[in-house]
Design a protein that fits this description.
Radius of gyration: 23 Å
Strand order of the largest sheet: 3-2-1-7-19-18
Helix content: 25-40%
CATH superfamily of the largest domain: FAD/NAD(P)-binding domain
Number of domains: 3
Structural class: alpha/beta
Number of helices: 11
Shape: globular
CATH class of the largest domain: Alpha Beta
Number of strands: 26
Length: 456
């Protein structure tokens, strides 16, 4: 008799897990019946691609879909749309759906992702968002913003609240659509970077024509008689606007598990083991989970599509009798801002200086300026690289990059050294490629590592 596996959530982690468990079950001889419950109507799509769809780089939502519902069902997965989970009874081994239906399971996989943060100041008296205000999280959000950008027309003013990855990418999209843009953040632009790198990103935004407001706590919206947003207020200032984007991050979608005795951490994120196991017969993967941070040896909430897919695959394999494991993260990330005549790439991996101290390291960090290519080549753009290592062990701890075209993907070389627990000297003396269109004779990443090593 087959085991019934219920997966809650049909995006990256959930569908990676569902397909992998069926593949592994075919190898191990396990008999699994897999049901996936999805509250919406979309599955397996790239949320990370939505800002580029908004900007016009992607023609339609269909291009962001990796696998259609039909492809999932053809693989033997019972995929059900419009199935919103209200609660879970771990004793009875049942999932309760809104509307009263109950679905039994032998194994439960939680892959519900995360909700966008919607602060109280953004809501009207009726508890709803005013017209012209919305986050950017789902395909429906993307289509909504494309329609609003078109309706507003060039010259409309868009306020983006939040200076992280999504905020930066949406500011690019709005500017490229011909709108005026103000970016408001309560701390710094790209606050996951060190201040000296963050400042460079903010200056690039300003040079592109974006109004950047730092250290601003938004206190409320101004709404017109028609119920549409007309402005935003913060401590010490205000700005008129036609549209307002909420880009304040996300929180794990785990509230339906309240009452279940499951290990949860930061912001309510589930804490699975490397195989995805949370409790007997309960598994979890993706943006509803915390992840193990290798360099600090702690558990943090760092939602990212690459993590979700890897976690889902490891979970699916382990549930079906395999042994794949997700061994944690380095917090490697990359994005860009390319609008208004500016092109700046932003990438990071490893710890911040503050996190390194908290983890017990004695960090030494240096910022090195250089070029992405030989200076006589048209491809040459400025780049700044921050490299940090531990003084006593010389272990590489973190690298951050801000620069022009071709700068960002250098971060992957640093991430490889971090993953293998290498030293700053390993990075300085690695055999890296050279050709004038791609680098200087001494690759700038190696130079940056060497200069940090010389300070130790």
């Amino acid at each position: 008799m087959s085991e019934h596996v219920v997966v809650v959530g049909a995006d990256a982690a959930g569908m990676s897990a569902a397909h992998q468990m069926l593949r592994t079950a075919g190898r191990t001889g396990r008999e699994l019946a897999v049901t996936v419950l999805e509250q919406g109507i979309h599955t397996s799509y790239s949320a990370c691609g939505i800002p580029y769809w908004m900007a016009g780089d992607v023609d339609s939502a269909d291009e962001l879909v990796a696998r259609t519902a039909e492809q999932h069902r053809d693989a033997g997965i019972d995929l059900r749309f419009g199935a919103r989970v209200a609660g879970v009874d771990l004793t009875a081994r049942e999932v309760a759906l809104e509307g009263g239906e109950r679905v039994g399971f032998d194994q439960l996989v939680v892959a519900t992702g995360a909700h966008p943060i919607v602060p109280g100041w953004a809501l009207g008296a009726d508890g709803e968002l005013p017209a012209g205000v919305r986050p950017v999280k789902t395909l429906d959000d993307g289509q909504w913003w494309i329609d609003r950008f078109a309706e507003a027309g060039p010259g409309a003013h868009v306020v983006v609240v939040g200076g992280g990855y999504i905020g930066l990418e949406v500011a690019e999209a709005a500017l490229r659509r011909g709108h005026g843009v103000t970016l408001v953040t309560r701390s710094r632009v790209m606050s996951s970077l060190e201040p000296e790198l963050s400042e460079r990103v903010a200056l690039a935004l300003c040079d592109a024509g974006v109004e950047v407001v730092l250290d601003a706590d938004v206190t409320g919206l101004v709404v017109g008689p028609d119920g549409a947003v007309t402005g935003v207020r913060w401590d010490g200032g205000a700005r008129d606007c036609d549209l307002l984007v909420l880009a304040l991050g996300v929180v794990p979608a785990t509230e339906f598990l309240d009452g279940c005795e499951l290990s949860r951490g930061e912001k309510g994120a589930l804490r699975p083991d490397p195989h995805g196991r949370v409790a007997e017969g309960v598994w979890a993967a993706g943006d509803c989970c915390a992840v193990y941070r290798r360099l600090a040896a702690d558990s943090v909430f760092r939602p990212l599509g690459t993590h979700a897919n890897k976690m889902g695959r490891a979970l699916g394999d382990s549930l079906a009798g395999g042994s794949l494991a997700f061994e944690g993260v380095l917090e490697t990330a990359i994005t860009r801002f390319a609008a208004g005549g500016q092109h700046v790439e932003v990438a990071r991996t490893g710890l911040s200086r503050e996190d390194a101290v908290a983890a017990g390291y004695d960090p030494v960090a240096v910022v090195t300026e250089g070029s992405t290519a030989s200076g006589y080549m048209d491809e040459a753009d400025p780049v700044a690289i921050w490299v940090m290592a531990d003084r006593s062990s010389r272990r590489l701890l973190g690298v951050q990059v801000v620069g022009g075209r071709g700068a960002g993907k250098r971060i992957d070389t640093a991430a490889a050294v971090l993953w293998m627990e290498g030293t700053v000297d390993d990075l300085a003396w690695m055999d890296l490629s050279y050709s004038p269109p791609f680098s200087t004779t001494w690759e700038v990443l190696g130079v940056a590592a060497r200069r940090t090593a010389e300070r130790m």
